[in-house]
Write a structure and sequence with these properties.
With about 325 residues, this protein is an alpha/beta fold. About 45% of the residues lie in helices and about 10% in strands. The protein contains 14 helices and nine strands. The protein has a seven-stranded mixed sheet with strand order 2-3-1-4-5-9-8, with helices on both faces. Helix 7 crosses helix 14. It is globular. It binds thiamine diphosphate. Thiamine diphosphate (TPP) binds near residues 96, 142, 171, 173 and 204.
Amino acid sequence: MLGVLLHPVLWHSHLFIRPRGPVAPSECLRGGTVMGVDDADLELLLLIRHFERKLLELFEAGQLNGTTHTCLGQEYIPVALRTLLAEADYVFSNHRGHGHYLARFNDPHGLLAEIMGREGAVCQGVGGSQHILRGRYLSTGVQGESMPVAVGTALHLKREGSNNLAAVFLGDGTWGEGSVYEALNMASLWQVPLLVLVENNGIAQSTPTGVQLAGSIAGRAAAFGVRHQLVRTQDLDEIRAELGPAVTRVRDTAEPLVVEFLTQRLGPHSKGDDTRPAEEVDLAAERDWYRRYAAEIPDRLGLCDIRQREFVEQVVKEVAARPLSTWDDRCLLPNV
Ligand SMILES: Cc1ncc(C[n+]2csc(CCOP(=O)(O)OP(=O)(O)O)c2C)c(N)n1
């Protein structure tokens, strides 16, 4: 019997490494209705989609350096949050942050220039895809790094007596970082206006969440006495209706909140590194918001899709023709 248990193939199979967390998020992900989608939301969803697709193409063509993590499939999250977050709130993003940035600033030129190291880059080309500072927006490629910084910022906001909050985006895999727990502890103890936005796409690089996360994110938040709200839908209005009162409560009472979005990553982890079985990737494509929009509002989606695709092509053409960005003293000043 022991021989069977120690058999290397079986040991590494799902027989022994059994997922202990909840089922894969995409299995619980609900579509929702898209009929009433707002023009501005539709344009933004498609801008992010085409921007991300284009980046992968540019990488493949050898026109980009460094790395990139696209948010393909997850675009609806920052788009939904766009109307819930105020300009004076702080947003801390992570390695998968292009959608977060575009939903906040609608600035594909500045972002692409940053990624390509061209003139007009948001951070003069020294931040690249993952490290961007603009006003009250900061992203980092170091998992978990933002949490303590966001808590400190939230404490500052509380002391200032403002009604603003610090929002921080995390992936499910980042719940393996100790800094997340130190920060949650402080956030709860000090009761600061911290909004933790978890994009649980069921995988961390190549490790499924079920084999790296014991218990659940809800349970972990509960251990610190922090409220947790689960969002299963991709529907923008539904997300806003579900989260609106909770976000207002964070502002009014300075009580931290963890919001967990069950979502799905459509593309690879970064460029070409998708380790998932083909059936799983196909399933994600079937549940993609884009497919539902195409089925339910084909005319509106079609027109908008062409417009945003062409717009992104133009942005690329224009930015790629710019001279390389250079570092100067402006880089030391916050770029608002
Ligand atoms: C401290 C640290 N460790 C490891 C990495 C390498 N890394 C980058 S993204 C990633 C997986 C992150 O998974 P998750 O938090 O679930 O976010 P997702 O990529 O799924 O959006 C890893 C291990 C890193 N960037 N920082």
